[in-house]
Model the fold of this input.
Amino acid sequence: MSWNGNLSRTQAESERSGIISHDHAETTRECLYDLKWHVTSIAHAKSLLGKLVIAAQQLPCNEVIAIGKKSSTELSSIIRYLKGDDPDVVEAAALALAVMSGQGTYTTTNQYGSHSLRTIQKGFAGAGDTLGNQIWPSATRLAEVCQQKGEAYFRGKRVIELGCGPGIPGILAAKLGAADIVLTDFEDGVLEVTRRNVEANNELGSCRIVKLDWRDNLKNFVEEHGTFDIVLAADVVYNAWHADAVATVCSHVLRWNPIAGDYSDVDVPSAMIVLGDRSAREGVELFAETMSSRGFRATDTTEATEMSEWRFVRRGDM
Done:
């Protein structure tokens, strides 16, 4: 079965039914409950399964999986529909189980100030690139930081996002007036999700999607794509190797300020980086020190205690 086809179908049905305006998480839980306790006919079961898929695919993948775990008894009741005689119900049940276990495609809409971003992410289908297909809390936080910086900070700038995944911070930078955005990641499958998000938010004209392996010759990358005024990165450091690699990339791709001291804070080239829970990622503790060794001065802007947030500028630029 085609996830893309099912996504388009369920989105269209969702718009017709008005589910988009409701609480999708509550609708998902209600459908699971009704499928176990309140089914009156095969037609009713098919309707509930379809409604469940529509609602769940409007939620972030991680939230869907969490709901499924908390409603495991109700979720397991769907299995009985796989043994039925109605092929439409069997297909609907199979799709519902896949979506609830995190193997679907999920579309959400998030508001950042006056900018509404439509986000597509793929679930855990067992491929090696699935982590990059997700929108993790650090990426959401980085997007919030970008929104707080505002249009004055991004207008006319060249921006690169490292390890972009679905690319939400970079796409928001485009909405905030950045002149040129390069979204980079390593996995081809992840970059396809990035492309779909850029297209869904009508930013194909301002965003370029480029494969970047941090082990590659970065001088060649800079020769082809130039340097940047702003580097964005979220949850890209897990161990010491990542800390060193990201610092190396930043030192290559961030533009040098030619007249240090003559620029306002808005004009100074900088890297804005949000990293995940340092207790689970050994490289996070090393990252600021590693950046310092590469000539950067760090400003800790952390607000959410479970994350680490920094803004880096080259020493001498400010």
Observations:
- Confidence is low (pLDDT under 50) at residues 1-22.
- The beta strands are 105-112, 115-122, 158-162, 180-185, 207-211, 230-234, 270-275, 296-300, 308-314.
- The CA atoms of residues 27 and 83 lie 25 Å apart.
